[in-house]
Amino acid sequence: MKTIGIDIGGANTKIASADGEIIELHYIPLWKDTRLPAALEEIAEKHSPERVSVVMTGELADCFEDKMAGIKFIMESVEQAFDCDIRYIDSNGQFYDGSGDLRKLAAANWAASANLIGAEIGDCIFVDMGSTTSDIIPIKSGKHAAGLTDFSRLVRNELVYAGVLRTNLAYLVDSLDLAAGKCRISSELFATTADVYLLLGDIDEEMYTCETADGAGKSKADAMRRIARIVCADMAEISPDEVYRIAEQVKEKQIVLLSEAISQVAERNELSVIVSAGLGEFLIRAAAKKLGFECISVAQRWGEEISKVFPAYAAARMFEADDLKNDTDRR
């Protein structure tokens, strides 16, 4: 039976089959005039799954009055698109049985990942960095030991709201060391982390899946122009070398912020092994090296493309494992 997992985020919807043969990432920003319902119908028609396992984080999008409205919209979109067995995974890493609090479905994509990592790798800190956020999930005795909401995880340093593509550079740095001296930066959305990592060669144009800050192109020249603006300059005022210097400082700051959060989670849970996943594995590895921690790569174990959509893949695997267990119990 074909099983697919769907991870519906605020910016991206990720698809993966349990066998890893289907891997897709769709940029669908929910806060706009979203095409999520139509996109899910296209996915259903294309793949004709017999089982669908769903995790979500998109309920936080500010087009919804509250999280409950977002959860209901996402569930309605899924159920209108797929005519098959559908299950939703909650923040406890369990399938929602239809009788509990729907709010447990909010921001639960990491819980599916933690189940698979806990079963196959064991005690560790699972770190998944995507386009927008970084999950830092302690796993002990096969189960996650994280907070159950985004709010509680932010308080506990288990969620860092910064990623590889969509993060405003003004979130990461407030000043930079330049040839002219220490320079404060503007708080405008002039450039994002995608520009930094494109310029530094950590991602390519194909991986730059989100919109640009100025609506212009995704070449290195475009990225350089946007980065220059964060110090209220253009390419007539500062050199390309200076822009690279800015990018390198932003990258180092993001590694430091990630390292600090991981260190606090590690100390609280007495863990020193990291499992890295997501588009930002290169940053997670750098943070692990900074901390002197062992780092196990999801990309190396399951494949680079699966790493980018790991919650969707883990959700699909969870559905299949549950059905296998039920079949065994019935026998």
Would you write up a description of this structure?
The protein has 331 residues and is of the alpha/beta class. It folds into 2 domains: 3-163 and 257-330, 2-Layer Sandwich (Nucleotidyltransferase, domain 5), CATH 3.30.420; 175-247, no CATH class. It has 12 helices and 13 strands. The chain has helices at 36-47, 67-81, 109-120, 150-155, 169-172, 193-199, 220-229, 240-269, 281-291, 298-302, 304-308, 310-330; strands at 3-8, 12-17, 23-27, 51-56, 85-88, 124-129, 134-140, 143-144, 159-160, 175-178, 181-184, 273-277, 294-297. Strand 12 (273-277), helix 9 (281-291) and strand 13 (294-297) form a beta-alpha-beta unit. Helix 3 (109-120) packs across helix 12.
Quick recap:
The protein has helices at residues 36-47, 67-81, 109-120, 150-155, 169-172, 193-199, 220-229, 240-269, 281-291, 298-302, 304-308, 310-330; strands at residues 3-8, 12-17, 23-27, 51-56, 85-88, 124-129, 134-140, 143-144, 159-160, 175-178, 181-184, 273-277, 294-297.
List keywords for this structure.
alpha/beta; 331 residues; 12 helices; 2 domains; 42% helix
- The level 1 CATH classification of the largest domain is Alpha Beta
User: Quick one: how many beta strands?
Assistant: 13
Which fold does the CATH topology of the largest domain refer to?
A: Nucleotidyltransferase, domain 5
Number of helices: 12
